[in-house]
Amino acid sequence: MAKVRIYQLAKELGMENQELLELLSQMGVSYKSHASTLEEKDAEAVRELVREQRGLQEKLAEEERRKSLPKRPPVVVIMGHVDHGKTTLLDYLRKSRIAEKEAGGITQHVGAFEVKTPGGTVVFIDTPGHEAFTSIRQRGARVADIAVIVIAADDGIMPQTDEAIAHAKAAGAKMIFAINKMDLPQADPERVKRQLMERGFVPEEYGGEAIVVPISAKTGKGVDDLLEMILLLAELEDLRADPEAEPRGVILESRLDKQAGILVNMLVQEGTFRVGDYVVAGEAYGRIRAMTDADGNQRKEAGPGSAVQVLGFQELPQAGEVVEWVPDLEAAKEIAEERKEARRAQEEEAQARRPRTMADLLKAMQEEGKKEVNLILRADTQGSLEAIQHILAKESTEEVKINVLLAQVGAPTESDILLAQTAHAAILAFGVTPPGSVKKTAEQKGVLLKTFRIIYDLIDEVRAMVKGQKEPQYKEEVLGRAEVRAIFRLPGGKQVAGCMVTQGRILRNAEVRVLRKGQEIWKGKMASLKRFKEDVREVAQGYECGIGLEGFDDFQEGDIIEAFQMVEVPA
Ligand code: GDP
């Protein structure tokens, strides 16, 4: 067994000898004091421990730092069924806010507005529809911290209420239920609460955690309570942002104006944007020429929680894209260009990997380590919808749980596709025909959308998927091999093997094993695959590359890294 000198290990870990010796005695590691060496396996244990401790320290320091940052206002989105009062509530909030300012003040639509209360400020997203909300979440930027789900007290929970709840859940936003139209004589808030309980949301007054506030968007009664609950919930979330951090925002809306050109409404999430800054948002870039806030003021800078209209984008960015700060125009152009390339490649890949059957979809979920498949159901009548749900409820097994995200009467919509894409769900429609445009979108986005004429065909399809899953037959297919020629250690201890691909090709996403003298000594996933510092997706025979593995750092020269994939054996 190889020996490691103590002073060398101390140097490697950036510690004093004495410090290391103390650690060794704490760990109960025996070392030969006369030779000042220790066993390689003990040295590795020390490295491991030091890495762990340092990781923990960094995490604590980061948390500590976060706590010292200034608070930021909560960002709220209002969702719910059509005609339940979303617009009226937004109007009321907007007006109460304007009333506080001097009369006649000009306001500017910037996609969000602030309401200042004695208890704090709340930012309301003011973009039409909640479709934007899903697309926002898809790009990984959580815009809204809180979703207010508006439910009319005279109408109760309706299909789009359920849809709104599903969207808010998928986006990871906290929810507050506002029971609206309380001024109407036929208002029945107790019925709404029962409906909420049926869905697993138990109001606080009944010992649950669901926040329910009765309001009238028309008279304004209860709206102060709503604001108070929003601020209370925000307080619990401890929302903070760093005005000094590298600026980051999110596009709320964008449009082309005949006179003004490209108009972009942006919400700042971190840091501070300044006029003159270069920015990239998805595939669009530009330089901020001017910023206008909701009060119509020209702003030189905009910090966390501010919504502003930005002039200066060269192309139309999409709602939901993250806005990043870049140092100069070159960088901006380059990043935007790279993203265009990456998107094209991704689209091709998505097209190729598009799930064609329920089994494909399930496989994709299982690859992510999930034992469930998400469904969106559509049917011609409430009766058939309930029949389908009733039967499907009994089809879940240990291996596969069937999760119905949304079950609705009527043809599939664009919104269903967004939800399906976000939640990796399949859309199964019975007795209804999706419009051609919806079919096309499903295809483009790689969403599985199937229509059935007979209920039992639908059930059979699901059943077959569940059954077929019990004994999947896979075999291994070797893709290529690479030989380790040199070993590098990164700061932090991670090893990277300098390799030559000697056979086939090495794919970044493939599974790999390490062979030493013909014996498998490790199997797992790659942490990195690079050529000249560039991350690459594949390296072909005859080329050199750097390979890092997830959780393996014991390379020796001459090791063979074998890349393989599991292919399904057709039954
Ligand atoms: P949205 O589709 O959710 O945006 O709903 P709207 O805000 O457009 O409201 C639909 C209808 O309900 C309108 O006629 C509103 O005037 C009415 N409405 C909204 N809130 C209230 C309320 O609190 N009380 C009463 N009586 N009517 C309301």
Automatic annotation (TrEMBL):
The keyword Protein biosynthesis is assigned to this record: yes
Record: residues binding GTP: 80-87, 126-130, 180-183
Cellular component terms per the entry's GO annotation: cytosol
Top-level taxon: Bacteria
Transmembrane segment boundaries: none
InterPro entries the UniProt entry points to: EF-G-like_DII, EFTu-like_2, IF2_II, IF2_N, P-loop_NTPase, Small_GTP-bd, T_Tr_GTP-bd_dom, TF_IF2_bacterial-like
Region: G-domain, residue numbers: 74-222
Protein's cellular compartments: Cytoplasm
A molecular-function term among this protein's GO annotations: translation initiation factor activity
Keywords noted in UniProt: Cytoplasm, GTP-binding, Initiation factor, Nucleotide-binding, Protein biosynthesis
Record domain Tr-type G: where: 71-240
Any single Pfam family the record assigns to this protein: GTP_EFTU
Family, similarity comment: Belongs to the TRAFAC class translation factor GTPase superfamily. Classic translation factor GTPase family. IF-2 subfamily.
Known function: One of the essential components for the initiation of protein synthesis. Protects formylmethionyl-tRNA from spontaneous hydrolysis and promotes its binding to the 30S ribosomal subunits. Also involved in the hydrolysis of GTP during the formation of the 70S ribosomal complex.
Alphabetized NCBIfam families for the sequence: IF-2 (TIGR00487), small_GTP (TIGR00231)
Record PANTHER family: TR-TYPE G DOMAIN-CONTAINING PROTEIN (PTHR43381:SF5), TRANSLATION INITIATION FACTOR IF-2-RELATED (PTHR43381)
Protein's recorded name: Translation initiation factor IF-2
Organism: Thermus oshimai JL-2
